[in-house]
Amino acid sequence: MTDRVQTPSSNGAGADIDAVETTEWLEAVDAVVEHDGPDRARQILARAVQRAELAGSGPIASITTPYVNTIPPAREAKLPGDPLLERRLRSIVRWNAMAMVVRANKLSSELGGHIASFQSLATLYEVGYNHFWHAPSDSHGGDLVYFQGHSSPGNYARAYLEGRLTEEQLDGFRQEVSTAGGLSSYPHPWLMPEFWQFPTVSLGIGAITSIYQARFMRYLEARDVAQTSGRKVWAFLGDGEMDEPETMGATALAGREGLDNLIWVVNCNLQRLDGPVRGNGKIIQELEADFRGAGWNVIKVVWGTRWDPLLAADTDGRLVKVMEECVDGEYQTYKSRDGAYVREHFFGKDPVLLERVAHMSDEEIWLLNRGGLDQQKVYAAYHEAVRHTGQPTVILAKTIKGYGMGVSGEGQMITHQAKKMTEDALLAFRDRFELPLSDKQVRAAEYYKPPSDSPEMEFLRERRAALGGSMPVRRMAAEPLEAPPLDTFKGQLEGTGDREISTTMAFVRVLAALLRDKQIGRRIVPIVPDESRTFGMEGMFRQVGIYSPLGQLYQPQDSEQLMFYKEDKHGQILEEGITEAGSISSFIAAGSSYSAHGEQMVPFYIYYSMFGYQRVGDLIWAAADSRTRGFLLGGTAGRTTLNGEGLQHEDGHSHLLFSVVPSCRAYDPTFGYEVAVIIQDGLRRMVTEQEDVFYYLTLMNENYHHPAMPEGAADGILRGMYLLREGSVGRKKKVPRVQLLGSGTILNEVLAAAELLESDFGVAADVWSVTSFTELRRDGIEVERWNMLHPLEQPRQAYVTSQLSGREGPVVASTDYLRAFPDQIRQWVPGSYRVLGTDGFGRSDSRSALRRFFEVDRHYVALAALKELADSGAIDRERVKEAIDRYEIDADAPMPTHV
Ligand SMILES: Cc1ncc(C[n+]2csc(CCOP(=O)(O)OP(=O)(O)O)c2C)c(N)n1
Ligand SMILES: [Mg+2]
């Protein structure tokens, strides 16, 4: 979409404004080549190119520019207002952020917290707060800022000055259970739903989700759902965080789609937790090349204003040469020492430079500041970033980790984890930032808030009022929507008659019906990572189109066909390509749109179940924390149902993984009507009631008949189980009886087992469809807890118990998942309970061979039931052996987990 090496200054370059001058230059090059050879020409041109880049030309021939600021001083927009006042305000924020961590750890050092990271970030945040970030208001939709997770004390300190948090709340930092209104360690919408918008502390997650957020804002606009232009997404990332694959993994998308509503600020304090990020290199230069290659506008903010005269005088390039030769490990060490050390070890690398700074005192050398800590440089960078068009912008800001912490951490290896400050360091901090605190107040780490009518407080209020109010702030709900009634999915409720279909197909039909729905249709967001054809969804390409900001610039190969591949500026499907991390990021953006944009959207993200939680579990956790609503569909699930694909594809555990997410409702439906009931009720809960839950449904690709929905089944489907088949023998005479449980495709094996038990062994079998062992367990846990806490009251009964008690015979469950999955309900099953499951690595074969191998097929279900009956004395043991022989079961086959 954009020229990959385009920069602000090269915008519009092209027309030759002086052809004669150009010819002279070219002739000069020719002459050099002729006299001194091409090597000499390269040498001269490299110097000339560098000179132009230093003047702010942007990159010319290479992908990186010299190790100086991208914006030359002459082009800087000037910070409006009173710089000293802003410094004083920032110093107060710095103090309070530090004090809250120090105070919490005086109480108990087990609470933890971080001081050093925010101290390196303070200027980068405060310039944003004072001049750039719009809160949502009548005149602006609001910018979305992804704050760095472990710098949260900086945000709390700001909120305190703005009157949003009290001192008691600051003192409740990291004490959310014992203190009313205590503050969460990191940004967690789940814990502070009116404050934090985006969970960022798991490194890399803020990065990738911010890209897809910016992209989703474009989508909302293209789909005519919301006006999002003029709003920016800002993400603050650590330089160490850049090593996470999630951080850099989607930068090309942002470049390709020209997301100029996205601004990343990388706080290059040169350190991560253990030590330097690139001790032997330079992180800023490395990132510059990476981002430029990905099509981003790169703004380096390396040096502060105090360096400007030295750089201006550096006509021979000696200073820049030393700047480029120094590695980050050295830059870190300089800032942990003093001016004399910097003189000797930095300027001392070149005697001419030593000479050049001879007139400066050690103190003056020490005060040579870094760009990311200089409000003027930061302001200029932000000013350019918000105006840049056609590309996302990354600001690479050089700072100092633990800035101001002195002996307690500045530039020190151990600074990341420092949560205490020595008294001397506290006093030095006070002096350095000129805070009006007595020694006693300093020693007690008292909070400081200037009087309400002080210039600092007036400025703070005036700026935030001008920018629409306080930030961060999170919207908890949007306009409720009506969920379509259940008969919208009539086709699924009535069964398939003679036709055999899969639950995936049933789901696609449900989705198609939703897309057609007048109320909710345009709010549905289908998300697929290159698997539409696998799931039989390719018909939707043509129907609703694949979103592309460019539309379709080519005639698709299959254009003659009815269902051709259609990209469209207004397309509805997010066809993400092969990125599950990107897809789940889109899921988060869409599923939290009610909050970020005040518009409810309903994502349906369908993928190979094995490449779901297992692959992107931490992002799923972030989705839950974000209070995301929507549907995840684990396609072609089960360890024996996706039979040909083998070990890496066959999922026998995604349900267990999802069972750990408190806000996830997970189901393993067998029939189309179950899929319809679950989705309809999910919509009701999410878009009408606006509960912050999301759904996980497993879908299969095995075709079979789907019956019509039995009367009254809906409640049981949602709660987790209902009786599907009543044993037919034994109505008149007394025969042994069993209760068989199953889910997903294996429920069909269970139904077949019931027939075998009746016809071959005269045993009556009732069959239950268990749509969610996980929901049943949740209910059981809650009931058990209530009973424990209310010993004198009438005990309540778990739903499983209420269904199975009064029914006769042992209980046997079989599913396409590990035994631990049905085992979840064991303690609420009355009487004996035997579970079968697909423990072990998957492999390829026919479904029946695999089900036999994993011992979950109809014959094993029958065998297990007979064994339970024999153990209870209801039948003879011989009958169990008879089943083994009749069904040709190899009693000495190895455990599937051992092979
Ligand atoms: C995925 C993940 N891994 C590890 C951590 C633990 N952790 C928190 S901060 C940090 C170092 C961060 O360094 P950097 O990104 O440079 O940020 P800085 O604090 O220097 O600004 C680590 C390892 C985490 N929060 N998330
Ligand atoms: Mg860092």
What this model shows, in words?
By secondary structure, the chain is of the alpha/beta class. The chain has 36 helices and 18 strands. The strands form 4 sheets. It has a 6-stranded parallel β-sheet with strand order 9-6-10-11-13-12, sandwiched between helices. The longest helix has 25 residues, at 83-107. The radius of gyration is 33 Å and the shape is elongated. Mean pLDDT is 95; it is low at 1-13. Thiamine diphosphate is lined by residues 117, 120, 150, 201-203, 238-241, 267, 269, 271-273, 277, 401, 416.
Q: What's the Cα radius of gyration?
A: 33 Å
Main-sheet strand order equals 9-6-10-11-13-12
Poorly predicted parts? 1-13
Distance between the termini: 51 Å
Number of helices: 36
Strand elements, count? 18
Strand % is 5-15%
User: What is the overall shape?
Assistant: elongated
What fraction, in percent, of the residue positions are helical? 40-55%
Overall pLDDT: 95
